[in-house]
Every structure is written in C-alpha cells, then in structure tokens.
Amino acid sequence: MAMASLARRKASLLSRNLSNGTGGVCRYALSLASFSRGFASGSDENDVVVIGGGPGGYVAAIKAAQLGLKTTCIEKRGTLGGTCLNVGCIPSKALLHSSHMYHEATHSFASHGVKFSSVEVDLPAMMAQKDKAVGNLTKGIEGLLKKNKVTYVKGYGKFVSPTEVSVDTIEGGNTIVKGKNIIVATGSDVKSLPGITIDEKKVVSSTGALALSEIPKKLVVIGAGYIGLEMGSVWARLGSQVTVVEFAPDIVPTMDGEIRKQFQRTLEKQKMKFMLKTKVVSLDTSGDGVKLILEPAAGGNQTTLEADVVLVSAGRNPFTAGLGLDKIGVETDKAGRILVNERFVTNVPGVHAIGDVIPGPMLAHKAEEDGVACVEFIAGKVGHVDYDKVPGVVYTHPEVASVGKTEEQVKALGVDYRVGKFPLMANSRAKAIDDAEGLVKIIADKETDKILGVHIMAPNAGELIHEAVLALSYDASSEDIARTCHAHPTMSEALKEAAMATYDKAIHI
User: Fold this and answer.
1) Which stretch of DSSP H or E encloses residue 363?
2) 504 partner at 20 to 30 Å CA-CA among 129, 145, 329, 401?
3) What are phi and psi of 297, to 5 degrees?
4) pLDDT tens digits along 173-201
5) Does the keyword Nucleotide-binding apply (predicted)?
6) Is the pTM of the predicted complex or chain greater than 0.85?
C-alpha cells in the first residue's frame, strides 16, 4: 500500500465528517450558514466572555481575540491556568521529574559510573522548584492575554442572564460583564467519597499531595487512576511505603488490558502495593495517623490498614456550582455535565460550554481543543475535535500513553484485527541508556490495515504517542508508519517496528 498524501487524506476526512456528522465526538460544523450571532458593537459589550481561565478557558479567550472578537476572560483563582497549571498537571510533573532524578541517583547512577558519597532529599527545595515553575507559567499566560488584548477580570462569575455575568471580584467589589456569546470553561473539582472528609493534612486530595511538608512513611492512595498512580509514584520514589486501594478489579480501567498488566507489574517492582477489589468503609483520623477500615468489594471480612497520609484520588466532577446555570435554564446530565451540541452550544442560545464541564475526556489538552473549536464556530468558521483521537498519558516511569481503541474495545465491536508488538528490550536506544522496560502495541483493521489504536509503555511515551495521533487523524495504515524513515538510534523506532510487526514482520526481533 503506497502512502497516501496527507492533503488527500485531510480532504477525505473533512468530506466524511461533513457528510455524516456521526459518532457524537466529531465536532465539524455542518454549515456556515447556521452562524447567526453578530459581533458586539457597544463599547461595554463583548463578542465573547469566557468564565474560567484554565487550559480551555484561556486558550478560547486568546483564540477569540486572534479572530478579531472583543473578549473578556473571568477567573476566580486570581492566577490563570486553572487546576492544571496551579494544582494539577504542571506541579505534579515537576515533582515527578524531581523525584525521578532522586530515584535515578540512588538506584541507577552507579551503574553508569557516577557515584556519590551520599544523596539526600531536600523537600523544601523540591517544592520551591515546583512553585517557581508554576509561578512563571501563570505569569506567562497573563502576558499572553495582555498581548492579545483580552480583558482579564479576577473574580467569581455567575450568570445574571444569558448575556450577562455578575463577577464578585477578588478585591471585594462587583462588576457586570456583558457578552453576545458566553463560554463556560470552569473545569472540574475533586470527587469526594461518602463519609470521607478531606482536610488536606492527613486526608488529602491531589492538591494536598502536591504540598506535603514531609515525606510520609506510609501513604495510602484511594483510587488507581492516572492521578493516584502518578502521585503515588512521586512519594514512593522519595521513600514512602505506598499502598493503592482500588474498588475495581484493575488499575486504570480505561487502559488496554495487556498494557495494564505489564504496567502494574512494573509499579510493583518499584515497591508500590495494590489492593484491588477493595472498598474503603471508613477512615479514623483521631490518632496520630489515619486508620482505614477496608472490606472486599463483593463483601466479606473487614481489615485495617494504617497510614500517615491518605490521598483520595477517586476522580473528578464538573465544576458548575454557583454559576447560576439553573437561573438561565441550562440543561445538565445526571453527572452534572453541561449538555452541548456539535458546536458547543447549550440549549440556551449564546451560552456555550467546553472542557471538563461537558461530556468527553477530562483532559487539559482536550479542553484546549474544545476552546479553539468553540470560538471558531462563534466566528463563523469551522471547528474540529475528534474525541476518539485524544491521547491519554500516565506520567509515571515508564510512562504509558495511548490513542484510539484498546484491544478489548475492538473485540467488542466485532472487528477483525491484527496486533503488532515490539518490546523496548529490543530497541537499541533504550538498551544503550539502560531504560528498556515497556513495549509498543498497534491494533489495525485486518482487511484495510487502518490503525485503530496505539498503546505505548516506555520512557517518554507521552512524546512518542503523537506520531500515532497524527497517523490516526489521517486514517493511516500500519504500513504507512512502517515505511516512514525513523532516525537511528531512537525510541521512536520501536513504533516503526511495531507497525512492521502489524502488517508483516519486525526486523529486530
């Protein structure tokens, strides 16, 4: 199969999406003629008002301004970037990197001929580095708003009407912001568990886990999802005894089953313990530490587990409280998510929603794509987000990244498929740096060779996955990747070899 041109594939993809509009996840506009909301002409009225300055909100605001729309962004925190930048993605990656450096120094440096008489953790310095990174980035986003002439209002916004937002400013005042189009981009908040009170001291959310003043001897993580495993990894590397308690039978249930099993084995080798199919009945914080009462998910005898700190990481809920959505009649589903159409418009004309407050993956990069597409629709252009092609990454070491469907999902669809795999142990770059735990797995349609899903467990898997995202976006075949020249020696060659193994045979195994 010869490699098709990217331009031809893009045209084909656009044609299909415009013609069928299926799947509920593809956000191509159906007709520019349906655009009817005009731009504001009054000096006190905006074309676009964005409530929320997180990844979805500030990106939407900047894009709207770049498209010539008069724009205001409202953010209650007083610093831009939302949960992701302030108490989520960015600070956690800073600590993941710092803790990995410490772990490498204590476990791997000697084998590379680098020896120290002693190595110790300076936790305050580690936290300071994290805080510096966060501070610089938040200031940078504020500079971008200023550069693009976006008005920035610091305060809590709530609807007065479909075209007006009342803002209680952080200075203590109140102002009304008017807009022809208002975008709700308020993100999500930590999901609580019945009977468990988070005090951010002994019982912490991910926010508290990013700011512990000392390394806990024993850390219990409730929830084996992305966030729980990442934060568990940080403290395990720094010396904590980490136990992960999960109600479900598997960690990261959305992950490909084969990858998940190898991933769990790797984490166990890093001395993380797992208690699956286990329910947390109650917590007792009356003593010096925390006492957890556990029982099997299916019922049975109760057991006790003790910890210095408990991290509650059971997922997130859309943050829509106090916005006045009910006052203007915006519809939500049972989970509290705002319902929107393919143009990100709610049932109330002129009111839009993006990111974690609507259905779809709760990921910062998904919110950014929503934001861009939403304002493109508002400006009379065409926006596009395909949720089937949004990559997910667990930033442990090794990282796990995926895009498209898992093998279990493909089986459930009844599609005939082929699987190609290539272990990192056979990759020259991974062997050269002595970091060869993991594999690349590609799933492709048996008849057409079209790639259906790619799953990578490897160092920097979060960087390697984007070749696969691009391939899926253009309906590439595994042979297309296999016949693309990859530089040697690189870990990217593992993806090429997995592609070769999918449609034919790999060379180096």
Assistant:
1) none
2) 401
3) -60, -30
4) 999 999 999 999 999 999 989 999 999 99
5) yes
6) yes
